[in-house]
Amino acid sequence: MSHHRREISLVAAILALSAVLAIVAPGFFAIGNLRDLLMANMPVLIVALGMTLVILTGQIDISVGSQFAICSVAAGVFAKLGLPTPAAGAAACLAGAIMGSINGVLVAYARIPAIVVTLAVMVALRDGLRWITQGAWVQDLPQSFQWFGASQSASEFVTIGVATILLASAGWGLRNLAAGRAVYATGSNENAARLAGIDPSRVVFCVFALTGALTGCAALFNAVRFNQVPSNAGLGLEMQVIAAVIVGGTSVTGGRGTVAGTLLGVILLGMIGPALTFLGINAYWERAIQGGIILAAVAIDAVGQAGSLRPAVSRPT
Amino acid sequence: MPLFSASGISKSFAGVQALKGVSFELREGEVHALIGENGAGKSTLIQVMTGALTPDSGTLTLNGHLLTHHSPAHSRALGIAVVYQQPALFPHLTVAENIALSLESAGMWRRIDWRARVTRANQLLERAGAAIRPGRLVATLSMPEQQIVEIAKAIGADAKVLILDEPTASLTGRELDSLFRVIASLRGDGVGIVYISHRLEEISTIADRVTVLRDGQTIDTRKVSEVDRAELIRLMVGREVSAIFPKRQVLAGDDVPLGGVVLETRGLSSRAAGIRDVSLAVRSGEILGLAGLVGSGRTQLAETLFGLTPADGGEILLRGQAVRIHSPAGAIGLHMGYVPEDRRQHGVVLDLPIAANTSLACLPAVSRRGMIDNVRERRLARGYVEQLRIKTGSIYAETGSLSGGNQQKVALARWLAIHPTVLILDEPTQGVDVGSKSEIHRIMIDLAEQGVAIVMISSELPEILGMSDRIAVMHAGAVAGVLSREEATQHNIMHLALGGAAA
After folding, report:
1. Which of B39, B55, B226, B328 has the fewest CB atoms lying closer than 10 Å?
2. Does this model's pTM top 0.90?
3. Interchain CB contact of B86 with A (< 8 Å)
4. CA distance B427 to A128
5. How far from B297 is each of A132, A226, A238, B270, CA to CA, in Å?
């Protein structure tokens, strides 16, 4: 927790990539491009905040992409029903929180492994949605929906503002609230946390529910950027989000990680795709390179653990 | 000619000199105890002996032959076997399969002769002195039984040198006797046995010679018959430890004044925990020892008191008031603390800094308006680091980086921070070096003097006898008897623990 090695190496990687781009393809830094890039990654960042908490408790949620699709469609449908956009957004967040709570109950109280629960929920939600919508997009949205009925800049300003507040609250809360301590303690040693009076099941339930709500929020900010809602929104979002959190230095086994790391992970992975285009490399390489970065991040963790003073199998001197 | 010798072994890690010219020799048919405080270099020496570590300098010989390019596989082939404190078995395989895996070396595609495997396992287990069915899954074995399986593996591997690393940490009474019988029989077969233990009584029982390590150096090798306990402790710590179990010795005949009854149970039962009809009372300032064999229900009683396992009969009274405790949080609210047996699994959160571990059970007390107040937390942690003499560079160091004794003190600090009226300590000094052990005992007495009611579970009879005001002995989930300090002897305790009727 006290060492910021991962954060520093991510900043270095981002700066290095920026330097290459500045020399080879300065067009990357055109205001319009950066703005697009920023807005495209806002949903990833918001969901990644929740995912950071989930992974910190030693769990995983691969259903966020499907939750995102449902929340997007819900926001659109509610808006079409005549709800004001903020209310439609609140409904989307609520829908997310409910789906997150289902995951949370099954993982924390029914004690089913998170990978199984969220895999099942991912498939069930995605295909359920496809069945209900018959693949149709939500169209003919009211004027007040896109850009919240305001200008594009104003809407983007709100989005960035909300994301910044969420980011700051998550970072601050993890450090300064007893709830944050409970998240770290649960992920790093559930038994010891229970003996210290923490209820690990409640902690796990809450992070799943919160992740659902954040996914709903992200879905809203994404949906208002367009004048129709695709029913296959958020396809592959879970991978982007989990990758960003892990590259950001959160330990997959829980207990270690920071929100700052996640932010840097989102930035680095978000830059790669467009950077490749600007560098004239085939965009098909994007996923491969992202995969390589994830492997590198996990490998660094593994080597770091092996080299630390604490052996994997402990025995006293 | 010694069976095995190590001479002038030095090894350093990242600038820290773990071993400085250590010499050690083991004869055929000898039990050679290796003792020293935590961090004295015992583990490193074992790892050098087994080839897991290559020494920076020094030589190893086996039967007079110099060992070069020593590796774990090489040492196993030469008949050097280790049984670690934590058995390393495959829990989802049977006993016979576990034994076979380490002994059978034929190719991947060979057909398995199941009958031969079982027969072999039976023979080896018998020599190891235990009646364990080879078809049982290792996951269903108790810790002592798992250790027996490890020993059976070593016997099967035809070990010439057998290293036992704290084999008795989880053993009690009968299991201990049976282990000693196995050791004696192996010694008779000419096996050289390196015996590592923190329990000095055992060493005088079982060992022929003893080598003391301190700060990575060999301090001395003596014949066990020519050295007494006090001398061994002096060699280990390099200073006189006048009282290892100070309550009785320092305060003999002059008790800590006992107050009123703080914690009382009346007919407490829990089917889930396997305890029945437990009626006990602990007074303010009293240390109640809870003795019994492993599996007699001592830890389960503690877990029921602390709200981890639901009680389904009887009642718990705190200062005369009936209370219901449904969760650890509830117990903490009543100012009860519980230092569990397994420090690394339950006691402390190794990834968290010392400060966060100390404040974990009393976060509201170091918070202001729901926010953790770093100044208060720092003050709290610094206070306990100083008071309990926790050896660390910083209160923000990860708890996992501390030695076992210091981790245990961090676990204690967490409970002191809630200002307990009742403190339950489960094996508080298990796997802790002699120096820290005596400090932990001192802390317990200070707490008793401040009026805390203490329940201490321990499998170490001298500790129980030395520290307790009264001793409750458990057998099969029930209290077999409660002994006063005058009545308590090793014999009486074992009599009750083994199911004998109260005298």
Report:
1. B226
2. no
3. yes
4. 54
5. 56, 65, 46, 11
